[in-house]
Write a structure and sequence with these properties.
The chain is an alpha/beta fold and 433 residues long. It is built from 20 helices and eight strands. The protein has helices at residues 3-6, 10-24, 27-35, 47-52, 64-71, 87-99, 106-110, 117-130, 136-147, 156-170, 189-194, 197-208, 225-229, 232-249, 260-274, 285-294, 322-328, 361-378, 388-401, 410-416, and strands at 183-185, 213-214, 253-256, 281-284, 303-309, 332-335, 382-385, 406-409. The two termini are 35 Å apart.
C-alpha cells in the first residue's frame, strides 16, 4: 500500500476506487464488461497462469473489480445502491492488477468476444491509484517523473552529462539541443543507466543514414510510468513534455527507442491522453531503421550467429511493428523463429511496470522459463529483443537461472554490423562515472 492510502480510512479508499471505476465505466469498457461469457479461454494465453496453473491468474478474473462497479449502474442493483467494493477486495485485486498482469494483450487473442482486457486493467489501475493503492516502488518511479524528469532519476543535468561522456568514450556525434531538427530522438532511462551502448548504437545508425536529428534536454524520457501506475496526471505531463519539445525543434518524426510501452503509450494513446492530435509521426526505432534501410540509406554486413527474436508485446502484438524487426534481420544468415512467434509470442514477464515491482520478482523468474524453452527449442545461441525493459527482465532472470544463452539488443547488433565509410570504436569499454 502506498503512503497516500495510509491517509485514508479503509472505507474511504474503497469508496475512492469505486467512484473512479464508475467514472471510467463507459463506452467500449462497458461493452467489454457485458460481453464476457466466462469461457476461460484466456487462461491458457496468460503466461502467469501457464507457469502456475493457479486459476486466480485467469485474465477474465481481472475484470471483476470494474464489473462489480458496473453492476451498481444496472437494474435491479441500482435500486439498492449496488454491490460495494470492500478493502479486502482491493487487497486481493491489487496483486492481480499490478504484479501479475503485464497488459501484453495475448489474452485478447484467445477471447471469442475480443475483449481488450489490457485496457480494463489499465483503467482499473487508475481506480487503485485514486485509492492510494499499488506497489510503492512503481508509484515512486512515477512520482520521479514529476520531481526529477524520469522514473530512474535521470535529470536534465544527468542526461547532459551522460551524453557528453558517451561522445568522448565512443567518439560518436550525439547531437544534443539543436535548435531545429527533422527528427527528435528519445531515450529510456533503462538504456541510459543500464545499457548506454544502445544510445550510441542509435546515434551511429542515424548519423550513417544522414538523418537530421537531435536529442533534447527539454524532452528526452520516453518511458511513461504515469500510465503504468494509473496516475494519468503524470502520464499527461510526460507526454506534453515530448510534444512541446518536438514542436519547438520543428520535428516531423519522434522516434521511440527500444522501449515497448513508451511506443504504445505515445503512438496509440498519446493524443487521447492530452486531448489533441500529435503534430508529428511517432515511430519505434525498428520502424525508423527499417524505413532507412528500405530507402537505401543503411546497409548491414551478414549476421552469422544463430539468432532468434523475442517480440516485445507493445511493439509487435499491440503495436503493429512486427514486420520491421524481421526486415532488419534479413541479413542474418541463421535467423530462427520461435514457436509461437510474432503477434502470438509469449511476453517476457516484466511489461506493464511489473519489472519495477520488487515483490513480483519470483513470479517474473518463473515466467521466464517459457522464454528459455522457446529459445532452446530453436537451437539459437543468441536471443534478440528491441525493448530495454524486456532485456532487463530477461537479463535478471537469466542470472537467476544461470542460463547460458546470449541476450542482445537488436539495435546494438545492427550497429555492430553496419556497413560504413570509417570504422568507429563501438566495442570500446567505457568506464561508468
Amino acid at each position: 500500500m502506498s503512503a497516500q492510502a495510509t491517509t485514508m480510512t479503509q472505507d474511504q479508499a474503497a469508496q475512492a476506487a469505486a467512484n473512479k471505476f464508475l467514472t471510467l465505466n463507459s463506452g467500449n469498457l462497458a461493452a467489454y464488461l457485458e460481453s464476457c461469457v466466462k469461457c476461460g479461454n484466456c487462461a491458457t494465453a496468460c503466461h502467469f497462469y501457464e507457469v502456475t496453473g493457479d486459476p486466480k491468474y485467469t485474465p477474465a478474473y481481472k475484470l471483476f473489480p470494474m464489473a462489480k462497479a458496473h453492476r451498481r449502474t444496472k437494474w435491479p442493483w441500482n435500486w439498492f445502491g449496488g454491490p460495494k467494493i470492500t478493502e479486502a477486495e482491493l487487497q486481493e485485486w491489487e496483486e492481480l492488477l499490478f504484479d501479475s498482469c503485464t497488459m501484453c494483450g495475448r489474452c485478447t487473442q484467445a477471447c471469442p468476444m475480443g475483449i481488450d482486457i489490457s485496457s480494463i486493467v489499465a483503467a482499473s489501475r487508475q481506480a487503485f491509484a485514486a485509492a492510494g493503492r499499488g506497489p510503492a516502488d512503481l508509484f515512486e518511479a512515477a512520482e520521479n517523473v514529476l520531481t526529477k524528469g524520469s522514473p530512474l532519476g535521470v535529470t536534465p543535468a544527468v542526461f547532459d552529462g551522460r551524453v557528453e561522456w558517451l561522445e568522448d568514450d565512443y567518439e560518436v556525434d550525439l547531437r544534443l539541443d539543436r535548435p531545429k531538427a527533422e527528427v527528435l530522438l528519445t531515450v529510456s532511462s533503462i538504456e541510459l543507466m543500464k545499457y548506454p551502448k544502445s544510445i550510441v548504437a542509435m546515434a551511429r545508425l542515424l548519423n550513417q543514414a544522414g538523418v537530421d536529428w537531435t536529442f533534447s534536454t527539454k524532452g528526452y524520457e520516453s518511458t511513461n510510468f504515469g500510465f503504468l501506475s494509473g496516475k494519468m496526471d503524470i502520464a499527461r505531463h510526460a507526454i506534453e513534455k515530448l510534444v512541446t519539445t518536438a514542436e519547438e525543434v520543428g520535428a516531423k518524426t519522434l522516434v521511440i527507442p527500444e522501449c515497448g510501452h513508451a511506443y504504445g503509450v505515445l503512438r496509440w494513446a498519446g493524443s487521447n491522453i492530452i486531448g489533441r492530435p500529435l503534430p508529428f509521426t511517432v515511430l519505434h526505432i525498428t520502424e525508423f531503421l527499417a524505413q532507412l534501410k528500405k530507402e537505401g540509406k543503411l546497409q548491414f554486413n551478414p549476421i552469422e550467429k544463430a539468432v532468434t527474436y523475442h517480440d516485445p508485446c507493445q511493439i509487435s502484438r499491440r503495436g503493429g511493428a512486427t514486420a520491421a524487426a524481421r526486415y532488419l534481420l534479413e541479413d542474418a544468415t541463421d535467423f530462427r523463429e520461435m514457436t509461437p512467434t510474432g503477434n502470438f509470442n509469449w511476453c517476457c514477464g516484466g511489461g506493464g511496470g511489473v519489472q519495477a515491482m520488487s515483490r513480483a520478482a519470483d513470479l517474473r523468474h518463473k515466467v521466464f522459463q517459457i522464454k528459455m524453452k522457446q529459445v532452446e527449442d530453436t537451437g539459437a545461441s543468441m536471443l534478440l529483443s528491441a525493448c530495454a525493459n524486456c532485456r532487463l527482465t530477461m537479463d535478471e532472470s537469466k542470472d537467476y537461472w544461470n542460463w547460458d544463452r546470449e541476450l542482445e539488443s537488436l539495435v546494438e547488433l545492427l550497429a555492430e554490423h553496419l556497413v560504413e565509410d570509417e570504422p568507429h570504436p563501438f566495442d570500446s569499454k567505457p568506464h561508468l562515472a
